[in-house]
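Recap from last week: sequence in, structure out.
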Amino acid sequence: MADNILEVKKLKISFRTNNGTVKAIRDISFELKRGETLAIVGESGSGKSVTSKAILGISAGNAIIDSGEILYDGKDLLKLTEEEMCKIRGDKISMIFQDPLSALNPIVKIGPQIIEALILKNKASRKTARKEFNQKLEVLKQNMYESFNSDQKATIDDLIQAYDNFSIKSLEIETDYNQSHAEATEIISKLEDFLFRASKHQSLNVADYAKTFLNNFKKVTNGFLINNYLDRIATSKAALLELSKTDKDNDELTEEQLEKLNELESLLLEITNQEKPDFLSVAFYMYSNKDADLSKNYNHDTKQMLAEYLQTNFLAKFLSFVEKALINSHNKSIILKQEVLSCLDALKQYFKAGNIDKKEAIEKVSIAGDLVLKSIDQLDVFKDSLAYTFKDSIIANVKSYFYSAKSNVKEAERFEKQTAKYEALVSKGKHIDWKVVPAKIVDLNDLVENIISKIERLEANYIKEIENKDDFSSFDSSLALIEYFKKKASEVVYKVTKAIAKEQAIKLMEEVGISEPRLRYKQYPFEFSGGMRQRIVIAIALASNPDVLICDEPTTALDVTIQSQILELINKLKKERNLSVIFITHDLGVVANMADRIAVMYAGKIVEYGTSEEVFYSPAHPYTWALLSSMPDLKTTEKLDAIPGTPPNMIYPPVGDAFAARNKYAMKIDFEEQPPLFKITDTHYAATWLLHPDAPKVEMPKIIKDRIERMKQEGGSEDGR
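Predicted structure tokens:
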């Protein structure tokens, strides 16, 4: 659904080892909503990092993706090629690792490492953005054609062509402006450093500095930035030229020279602090009036006049056409989705009936998949990943069913032969140093249930959309579409040069809390503390402005004070950048004040899932109790409980609840059968037989009850510190 930016569905991951196959992830599902923080908590080996690496497509070489889906932006990440994944990894989804030093090149200065992250993604993203911009604009045009009479076709063509041309042009003007602005800012920085050193009577080569300032000034060329200051700029350049001709041994400034440089600094500050032009209205006016040069005498009144000109001569009319096109696209989609529901119901009944024929099944799911793709609203900028991936995914599920059916027969034959051989050797009294490998039989009923479940999830999505069809807002959708075009256009024209990348790198360093970024830009990783190195890694992760940030134990290697600072920084960046965050940790206390929802993992399964308040105030699984009981805080007077025993050997996963052997509340059924996720509330689930209606009532440990009461009295969550 549109609220979810990332969805993990029924994910299973194993690892080949010399001792056998380790079942690392055992059928987990969760969603990450836009703008939220989801914490995944559990002991080492629970599967947290395996999950995060699978999302990024960086699983170890011996990893086996047994089944499942990871849905993002209309794609199943598990089915993408490495080339396709490179366009997402580090660009749309970034990661902060546990050890910042291992994530940095020790012999390369910090600045170039951040610059590399900025430049590497730029070329590929520009090409992709142009393609996506053109495709969406073409869909918009076709829906405009369908929404108006044929006599409006020429008008629509003119509107679309105009918007295509001047929206891209506006970003070209803005990019040029920003490049000049960055150069001017660079001069200010160098000039401030020069004047500071001059005030301390340090030895300076005045002529060389003046030449540097002059060369930088030549790159400040954007008319909107400088045209109102041309006379003063000429005077300052003449002063710099004169300074550049002074004796190279001269390292003292006269009062007059100092005054000239101070005037230059004031001028540059005035230039860089100007109100930015409205580039869209500027571009439209230049598009409509080919000879217009708006950079001369551009001011606030000009800006207001151009905004009114854009609104009157283009924007109002264009938006009215856009709104009708959006309504047309939405209505077509709803009609087609109603047809799809009939097809999905028939498909569901086919799989429920059994007697599945391979050729027939693939034909049926292919037809249904094509209908689903056809029913998608192509002007909706928020992609329903389930619909986009439905066809490929369900075909893969059907093929997996028939592959497993065939392999089950072979595996049964292999097991029977090996068992017979083993027994024959035993009967002869032979010494045997090997064991019969258990038969790996895939439950075909489970595979059918997965197919049916996928159909039902899509059905539920479509039913909800049809029921809420009248809530569609063409106005809100128009704004979202315009923002989409603006974003794609900016990616098209935004060419990152080394000069731009350097300025952005410095701003990123400043954003993540690194003081004196221009000075520290040239330092090596070893010259930073652990906390500062982690801030640099965060800056690199943010370089491409990702949608999703995965934080894999980012505070584990830091002391308590620095941990708190890094957590506050991640929270701040999340709000400012509207990031969606997956935060992985073994320490529940770390996420008390930052997680919106929490998934508690144990032995490759999610054992409890709920909002932060539900997990902290109403924990339901004994493993969650154990984590909370072992979590220190300043006010607990009782002895903290250690979790007894060790996690199970996942080469041979337990038949029942994996936590049973360490759970003092375990019942007989815990050793015999895995518990399902019992629903506690609409947002809170836990996989423990203690929630079964027939289970004995068990109170949570006193240390947790006391802590919860104390938190309620204090009106907030403790952070465990």
